[in-house]
Design a protein that fits this description.
about 20% strand, alpha/beta, 7-CO-7-deazaguanine_synth-like, 10-stranded mixed beta sheet, TIM Barrel
């Protein structure tokens, strides 16, 4: 059994039996799938599985003093309309909606909180078809069995700017950075011919030194694995931080990470 966020498996147009749904998905298209909007796999047609629950409570504090909450708070700590499905039901839904899609993205919330159920899901999926499975994680938790089923690791360590003092003591939060855990992901990827990315949200100049300090404690990464993404849950917010983010990418040889889904769909859920 997997506990899912309200958008769960998206965008889909058929039920588990392959029958058409009565309404279009949030993408507005009469077919399943969307694109991966961030990172090395940006632009690749994908189907998303969004699990519910997270061990962090992220609110970013910008240099201008503005607070921005997690763009998927409804799946992380402000849970809304969550539901649970058996693994086999999820497999049937995915198979019915991936006629032309090869990439499955597991996201959250924090997927590794449900490592056992996700391991079973990935095994079941790969028994019937060679799906490429990505996972998006804050890299504070590690599970060997689940990691073995994953093809691409999107590691998004949360800097101190994501733990705003305005919310300290009000919400439970895990340790935002776990270098030992991050290194486990990197070691597995390097030893097994897989790929990964380290994706950081940029809010202010102070983030850069924190990133460099973290990177100095890690091994086996390349500059091309490091992505810097401007803070923002709507296009105007992203644009406000984009030039500063780009400057730091150019100065450090890191990748600039766009948020293509915001450009295409705006701040919609389920796309």
């Amino acid at each position: 059994m997997l506990h899912l966020a309200k958008d769960g498996i998206f965008p889909i147009v058929k039920d588990a039996a392959g029958h058409p749904l009565s309404s279009l998905p949030a993408s507005g298209f009469p077919f399943a799938g969307t694109i991966q909007g961030e990172g090395k796999l940006c632009g690749i047609p994908s189907l998303f599985v969004r699990v519910a629950g997270c061990n962090l409570h992220c609110h970013w504090s910008t240099s201008e003093g503005k607070l921005t909450e997690c763009d998927t708070a409804y799946a992380a700590y402000r849970l809304q309309n969550t539901f649970s499905l058996e693994t086999e039901e999820i497999c049937r839904l995915i198979r019915a909606n991936t006629e032309n899609l090869d990439h499955i993205v597991i996201t959250g919330g924090e997927p590794f909180l449900q490592a056992d159920a996700l391991t079973n899901l990935c095994k079941a999926l790969k028994q019937s078809r060679k799906y490429h499975v990505s996972i998006e994680t804050n890299a504070t938790l590690y599970d060997k069995d689940l990691v073995e089923q994953i093809d691409f690791f999107s590691l998004s360590p949360k800097l101190s700017s994501s733990q705003s003092p305005a919310f300290s003591g009000k919400q439970k939060s895990g340790v935002p950075l776990n270098p030992l855990c991050i290194q486990q992901f990197i070691d597995h990827a390097r030893s097994n011919g897989k790929d990964f990315q380290l994706k950081f949200v940029y809010t202010a100049t102070k983030d850069i030194q924190e990133i460099k300090t973290l990177l100095s404690s890690l091994k086996k990464w390349h500059k091309s694995d490091i992505l810097l993404m401007p803070l923002g849950t709507i296009p105007t917010e992203v644009q406000a931080h984009s030039r500063e983010t780009l400057r730091h990418c150019l100065q450090n040889g890191w990748r600039y990470c766009d948020r293509l889904h915001l450009t295409l769909f705006g701040p919609k859920e389920g796309v």
